[in-house]
Amino acid sequence: GAGVSQSPSNKVTEKGKDVELRCDPISGHTALYWYRQSLGQGLEFLIYFQGNSAPDKSGLPSDRFSAERTGGSVSTLTIQRTQQEDSAVYLCASSFSGGQFFGPGTRLTVL
Amino acid sequence: GENVEQHPSTLSVQEGDSAVIKCTYSDSASNYFPWYKQELGKRPQLIIDIRSNVGEKKDQRIAVTLNKTAKHFSLHITETQPEDSAVYFCAARSLNAGGTSYGKLTFGQGTILTVHP
């Protein structure tokens, strides 16, 4: 079936605006993850959803970041009052029991 | 929580040589260790993985070894080719904060592999 999809692929916003990033995981995958990757850097864990369990939010850098997963499928990552340091590629991944499969990412640029 | 260290940060080899990337982890309860390859401007792709009940796994030119006692695992690429050039990430899957389930992956810092023709 289709892989993980993310939208938009690119987002340019002004400092102080809110943004929403969307992730559609692979059908049937119970786990969903959000990561952030700055240019030339590694993968920074943000948040993890597993089935109906409470999400692991331990990687969210501030209270401006939040995420939801509706109906155990689609997830939205929201960044409020964006700052220039939020500029990065935001990657979503999903898994069932083993390896995670990544989406293409959303490149966020905050001017 | 889990901590994963990856070495080297950069690795340059000649085509046909072997390449080895090593990772150490801190949480002895971690039970799954995948490796990802990320080409420039693309998403990370799972290339091989190993579970804690296995010591070695091979898939054509790539292999992964796991030493649970020493808490380290390694990626081995033989007969390297220019198309192997990419950033490679190791990861370890650990228990959640409550110790009730596995899921979260902790990634190493990445290794930039360059294969010269």
Describe this protein's structure.
The complex is a heterodimer of chains A (111) and B (117). By secondary structure, chain A is mainly beta. Chain A is 0% helix and 47% strand. Chain A has strands spanning 5-7, 10-13, 19-24, 31-37, 44-50, 65-69, 75-79, 88-95, 101-102, 106-110. In chain A, a hairpin with a 5-residue loop joins strand 8 and strand 9 (101-102). Chain A is globular and about 40 Å long. The mean pLDDT of chain A is 93. By secondary structure, chain B is mainly beta. In chain B, strands 2, 4, 5, 9, 10 and 11 form a 6-stranded mixed sheet that branches. In chain B, strands 1-3-8-7-6 form a 5-stranded antiparallel sheet, with no helix packed on it. In chain B, a hairpin with a 2-residue loop joins strand 6 (56-59) and strand 7 (62-67). Chain B is globular. The termini of chain B are far apart. The mean pLDDT of chain B is 93. Chains A and B meet through strand 5 and strand 9 of A and strand 5 and strand 10 of B.
Keywords:
heterodimer; A: 111 residues; mainly beta; 4-stranded antiparallel sheet; B: 117 residues; 6-stranded mixed sheet; globular
Radius of gyration of chain A: 13 Å
**Low-confidence runs of chain A (pLDDT<50, min 5 residues)?**
none
Rg of chain B over CA atoms, rounded to whole Å, is 14 Å
Poorly predicted runs of chain B are none
- H/E series of chain A, N to C? EEEEEEEEEE
Largest beta-sheet characterization of chain B: 6 strands, mixed
Shape designation of chain B? globular
- Overall geometric form of chain A: globular
Secondary-structure topology with pairs:
The complex is a heterodimer of chains A (111) and B (117).
Chain A: E1 5-7, E2 10-13, E3 19-24, E4 31-37, E5 44-50, E6 65-69, E7 75-79, E8 88-95, E9 101-102, E10 106-110
Parallel strand pairs in A: 2-10
Antiparallel strand pairs in A: 1-3, 3-7, 4-5, 4-8, 6-7, 8-9, 8-10
Chain B: E1 4-7, E2 10-14, E3 19-25, E4 32-38, E5 45-51, E6 56-59, E7 62-67, E8 72-77, E9 86-95, E10 102-107, E11 111-116
Parallel strand pairs in B: 2-11
Antiparallel strand pairs in B: 1-3, 3-8, 4-5, 4-9, 6-7, 7-8, 9-10, 9-11
